Amino acid sequence: MSILHAPVRILGCGSLLMGDDGVGLKVIEALKKTELEELEGLDIEDAGVCGLDLLNLFDGARKVIIVDAVLAGSRKGSVHLIEGKDLLNGTEPHTLVSIHDLTITDVLRIGEQVQSLPEIVVIGIEIGELATEISRDISPEVLKAVDKAIELIRAEIGELL
Q: What is the model's pLDDT at position 92?
């Protein structure tokens, strides 16, 4: 059973110890300082490194917005809106980052086999490369993308505002 209860959920993924990979968590941190934190019908949560436990956070949701780092070969700090259905059917060219064994795409593919999935949208922020050393630093180009990601999230949850 999910610890979350709202029909719309925003989940930030990443690791604050792996440099730019932590950008999804920075977006969640910024969102929690806005009026959205108090919005009825919306949960905003840090989902950590997004293993299979992510599926528990989908239970009972109508829509889930996942914010994570991507490697798409685009300009560092660019922001992408990725439909979950495109990830599932393999038409999305973005590579979602994982510092563990499973990417969000892997989790969604397993999830569709074992449960009913809500509408999924991924806000992906281009990080350019994976961190090779432990670091809490997020590059300025990636940090600038936080505001753009929040703008896309606001558009996605427009019906709640």
A: 62
* Cα–Cα distance, 30 to 147 (Å, whole number): 9
Tokens of 110: 């397993």
Alpha carbon distance 40, 44 (integer Å): 11
Domain boundaries, the chain: 21-160
**Residue ranges of the chain with per-residue pLDDT less than 70:** 1-3, 91-101, 160-161
Taking the model in full, what pTM does it have?
0.89
DSSP-assigned letters across all residues of 24-91: HHHHHHHHTTSGGGG-TTEEEEE-TT--GGGGGGGTT-SEEEEEEEEE-SS-TT-EEEEEHHHHHTT-
Residue 18 forms beta bridges with which residues? Answer: 135
Give counts: helices (H), strands (E), the chain.
Answer: 4, 6
Q: Which positions ≥6 away from 120 have C-beta within 8 Å?
A: 63, 64, 66, 83, 84, 85, 87, 108
Q: 21-160 falls under which CATH superfamily?
A: HybD-like (3.40.50.1450)
